[in-house]
Amino acid sequence: MDTNTILDRINNLISKDSTILKGFDDKIAAATTKKESAAEEAKSFASESNEIQSDIDKIAKVSELSERFANLDAYLPGLKKLGESTTYIDKLNAELKRIPEQIEELENKIKELSDKKNTSEQVVKASEDELSKLDVDLSDAKRYQSNLIDLINLAKSGDINKTREEVQETLTHVGFKDEEAVKAAKIILFPEDDLIPYFNKDKEVKEVKEETPIDNAEPTEKEEKVSVAVEPAEVTPLTETTEINPEPVVENVSLDDLEIDQNTPEIVPEVNEIAEPEVKEEDSTKDILEDLGLDASKFSEDDLKVLSNTNSDIIKENVDFLIDKDITKDIIYQNINFITDAEIKAKYDYLINELNKTKDDIKVNPLILVSYSLNDFKKLVEVAKNTGINPADIALSIYLKGLQNYLQNYIALNGANIILDSNELAKFGIILTISPLEFSKVLQVVEAYHLTLKKNDGKVALMVLTKNAKDIYSKINLLIENNEFDIARFYPDALMNNVNKIINRLDFIKENHIPYKASAHGITVYQPYVFNDDTLEHIVEKKLDLHDKISLEENNSYLSKLVKDEELVTLLNEMAFDDAMLAKDMDNYRDVINKYRDVIDEDDIKYSIANLSIAKNKININLNYLLNNKPDADLGEAMLVSAAINSHFSNAELDSLASTLKVK
Amino acid sequence: MNIFNDYDINIDNINNELKDDLENNSALVKLNLDYLNSLGINNIKEIFKRYYPMFLMDNSNFMNVFNKYDKKDLLDKISKNMTIIEHL
Fold it and tell me: Which residue of A has its CA nearest to B88?
């Protein structure tokens, strides 16, 4: 992507016509149409169904009559003597006999309509969910756009004080891929080369375009001299608040200044006369700011221009309000939305009254007041409620990050049958804002071992989800290798700690025949000294110096000597965790496991080979990966390496394993 | 202001995204740490290490976790077993 393309894209993304926002408009329109159409269908099915039910009710009444005619057959021989009239009685009798059948047919029809209605209602519900999600995504998109606008404004001022990482992060949020973001960040961080000229040129184009004389009159000599200095529309954040279009300041402005309007081109003479109205305007704004106790010199020129076009009543009201709420002036200098946003007070009241936040909560997180429009905030709260979360339990720090990740991870947790109570959600909710990509990796590991993360005390060990997925995977495998998988099942928070140390303690405990666990009613309880050095030392009344019996490096080195194809060890050692997770879902392993079926025992979690326990996930994943990357690998060697890599087995145990698998 | 240094807290080895959150919300974290300090809790460092995401709760909700209990009883229980915090 070349520089101009990047700048065109940035220009689009900060404009009202941003492709991202337009995309949302399209998706929202499509989902709304789908919802309305399905709702209409459901209504129609319901109406038809009601009509049929009404018919059934009528027929049922007739059915009552039929019972009265139940013995009609008995009278028929006598009635036949009446002649032709009996034909009608026969017909009536036949019709009456068909009533149950007719009712059944109609009831089937109702059932069919009811099914159709349910399907339509499901579509309505799905569309509503989609719309809720789109609302959240759109709020985030607007926030990201606002961040980008702030960034570009800073760059245009030539005084950008952001790190490369911050700039790249903002760019990736608005759809730049990593490589593009690197290039675009360079353009923004060094704006003099390309960005400033680009936007200056863009402004010139606007000047030419908008120089159309009023009322299509031929320009007079004087008018030909004028130029139009219009703030680029794209620098205005697309929040709800800015759509309100505050009235421009008109008081204390001379007739000449009345030419300046937000919606019409600002026409000022090119020569000496150009500066005067602007200076007056900005002076007036500065006076207002100074009168309000603000230091006008702390606002940038661009900010002052925006403020000069903002209703002074809003500025006054907001400044008074924010000062009354102990929100520091510094925050106003950093973000003028605090004094241009007409909804500040309404949003503040909403946070206090609807979300039970306090003055102090908002004081330390004032950005929440300018991060969403009131309407968007209400939509977010509605989405949280619909997801089953009390919006008051969601911290402002979470709202500030956006609810997208939070809700996505919450739903993923529920999908993994890990249900948080409101207390856990309120205390540890911020964990759910971690990137869903990282979050889902740990969750995949947890699910692969059928863990619930529920501790013996009933609480969920949520902190495990903040850890590196690969580490958690290795730790669980190590516990299985030592026949202590119950630690992961009943003490999942142990996965936060150094599991090697737990194993070392257990080795010591077992060697000294110290009882350390008891199982009953499907639960295993471990003694506290399994998890704590001090407690163990207290029990044995001596200082302990416990070490790993064998290092992974030693083990892998010995393993390399047991096989002819050392590349198998290298391949698994270098396997990326993402590849391991991909390999988890393959089934290349089945044939190998079947080949060794006579020497392998298995349960849900582990294989037992040569009296050694090895995680099934570990062997299956490793085998899948090896056979996928090296299809001609010797199956025995692949099996041995898959089972023994990164284990803590002794050399003797490895020999035994190799021998059992007939590798040597 | 480095609130983490003030409380001798090391946040180097925690989840990177949450580390950023703690740094970006240091005023809030300070408010919550100071509140625990004002209660007289002496193992704040260990509590933070184990439960650092809690310190990003709104201060009002954070205080509500602790302030409904008898202070002496609370201090006693937390000093004996900090995991009681999960149940407060």
Answer: A423
Structure tokens at A462: 């949520």
CB contacts, 8 Å: B68 with chain A: none
* Nearest to A63, CA basis, from A92, A99, A108: A99
Interface mutation vs chain B, best among A362, A393, A427, most B CBs within 10 Å? A427
Is A463 in the B-facing interface, judged by CB distances under 8 Å?
A: yes
Residue B72 Cα, gap to closest chain A Cα (Å): 23
Q: What is the helix (H) or strand (E) element at residue A268, kind and residue range? A: strand A267-269
Residue A233 has pLDDT above 80, yes or no: no
Nearest to A412 by CA among A399, A393, A431: A431
Mean pLDDT confidence for A519-531: 91
- pLDDT, residue A269, reads 29
Q: Which two tokens stand for residue A142?
A: 């607007």
User: What is the identity of the amino acid at A477?
Assistant: N
Please answer yes or no on whether A364 and B27 come within 8 Å at the CB atom. Answer: yes
Query: Span A59-77, mean pLDDT?
Result: 63
Distance of alpha carbon A122 from alpha carbon A294, whole angstroms: 55
How distant is the alpha carbon of residue A240 from its chain centre?
Answer: 23
* For A166, nearest residue in chain B (alpha carbons): B20
Percentage of chain A beyond pLDDT 70 is 83
Distances, alpha carbon A368 to alpha carbons A396, A570, A598, in Å: 7, 50, 64
| pLDDT single digits (tens) A343-399 | 999 999 999 999 999 999 999 999 999 999 999 899 889 989 988 899 999 999 999
Residue with tokens 């002074």: A312
Q: Kindly report the nearest CA distance between residue A430 and chain B, in angstroms.
A: 6
Helix (H) or strand (E) holding A243: helix A240-243
Percent of chain A with pLDDT over 90: 40
Q: Do A229 and A259 meet the contact criterion of CB atoms below 8 Å apart? A: no
Q: What is the pLDDT of residues A268-301, one digit of tens each?
A: 323 333 334 444 556 688 888 888 888 888 888 8
- Distance in angstroms (rounded) separating the CA atoms of residues A229 and A261: 11
Q: What is the pLDDT of residue A439?
A: 93
Q: Would you call A364 and B83 a contact, using CB atoms and an 8 Å cutoff?
A: no
ipTM: 0.95
Q: The tokens of A236 are what?
A: 């205005």
In this prediction, residue A222 has a pLDDT band, given cuts at 50, 70 and 90, of very low
Kindly list the residues from chain B whose CB atom is less than 8 angstroms away from the CB atom of residue A462.
Answer: 53
Distance CA B39, CA A218 (A): 78
pLDDT band at A170 (very low <50, low <70, confident <90, very high): confident
Closest Cα partner for A429 from B20, B61, B34?
Answer: B61
Distance in angstroms (rounded) separating the CA atoms of residues A614 and A646: 11
Q: Give the distance from residue B13's alpha carbon to the nearest chain A alpha carbon, in angstroms.
A: 10
Position A259 pLDDT exceeds 70:
no
Cβ atoms within 10 Å of A435's Cβ, excluding its own: 13
The minimum CA-CA distance between B67 and chain A, rounded to whole Å, is: 15
Residues 322..361 of A with a Cβ closer than 8 Å to B: which? 356-358, 360-361
The residue behind tokens 């907001």 is A318
Residue A520, SS3 per DSSP: strand
